[in-house]
Amino acid sequence: MKKIIITIDGYSSCGKSTVARQLAKELNYIFIDSGAMYRAITLYFLQNKVNLHDEAAVNTALAAINLSFVFNATTGKSDMYLNEVNVEIAIREMYISDNVSTVAADAAVREFAVAQQRKIGEQKGIVMDGRDIGTTVFPNAELKIFMTADIDVRVERRYKEVVAANAGITREEVKQNLAMRDHLDSTRAISPLRKADDALVLDNSNLTMAEQLTLVLQWVNERIQ
Ligand code: CDP
Ligand code: CDP
Questions:
Q1: Nearby residues of 29 by Cβ (< 8 Å), 6 or more positions away
Q2: What is one GO cellular-component annotation here (predicted)?
Q3: For a Cys staple, 24 with which of 1, 29, 109, 126, CB 3.0–4.6 Å?
Q4: Is the model's pTM score more than 0.80?
Q5: What is the pLDDT of residues 207-219, one digit of tens each?
Q6: Cα angle at 211 between 206 and 213, to 5 degrees?
Q7: Is there a binding annotation on residue 11?
Q8: Is residue 35 lining ligand 1, measured as CB closer than 6 Å?
Q9: How many angstroms is it from 40 CA to the middle of ligand 1?
């Protein structure tokens, strides 16, 4: 059966990584969470106080960043490593979510991340989720999915995920962060979030995880036979 590239783009917290992970497991494909790469770059920029308006400083910082995904046998998922340090937990913190879309809008940052994503894709048999994967990173991907879900459903899903690690966080704060990122991601100049013309839309507001998997597997099967 032929190996393909599957791209999953869409709004914040609608379940892109969840679907990508489900598919990768079913198909024995590699799953790449491209958002984790932008989050790790953001962590480095904040730790090192990199000024986004200083092009030379941005380039120097990027040259010092080494990103890798390392499989974690305990969780069964890949963790994001920044310069050989596991940052999987650190990059999910709220202050990273508050800054990531600004960092991700930078041209040099995007060039850096996209080059690495394309390299990973050379081997095919991958599912990558993000914002510009079907439009920019892999415009020739065999299957492109554009995900969306009702904003209140998305807030509830994200709130449940972050409440334990962010004491005192409210649903309103989560909603503001999702809305802010969706706005910045959709309106930036370079590779804004938008549906690729040939992407299939998946609105999972009212779908269980099992139902969404059944649906996307049908789409995959139509393309790998
Ligand atoms: O929190 P959520 O899982 O929705 O987002 P994420 O996938 O972790 O991505 C975090 C942020 O990285 C997004 O809000 C975008 O600003 C940026 N991003 C991007 O610009 N392009 C991508 N391909 C993936 C993420
Ligand atoms: O990657 P993205 O930010 O789009 O979302 P995610 O990190 O996959 O998080 C989505 C959350 O919604 C997870 O906690 C899932 O368990 C949950 N969920 C889902 O993904 N799909 C459904 N049909 C129902 C719930």
A1: 3, 6, 23, 125, 126, 127
A2: cytosol
A3: 29
A4: yes
A5: 999 999 999 999 9
A6: 125
A7: yes
A8: yes
A9: 11
Single-letter code of the amino acid located at 100: V
Please give the distance, rounded to the nearest whole angstrom, from the Cα atom of residue 12 to the centre of ligand 2.
10
> Are the CB atoms for 42 and 99 separated by under 8 Å?
yes
Q: Which ligand is nearest to the CA of 43?
A: 1
> Does the domain at residues 5-32+92-211 carry the CATH identifier 3.40.50.300?
yes
* CA nearest ligand 1 atom 15, residue: 101
Calpha distance 184→189 (Å, rounded): 10
CA of 138 to the centre of ligand 2 (A): 23
The ipTM of this complex is: 0.96
Q: Give per-residue pLDDT as tens, 7-25.
A: 999 999 999 999 999 999 9
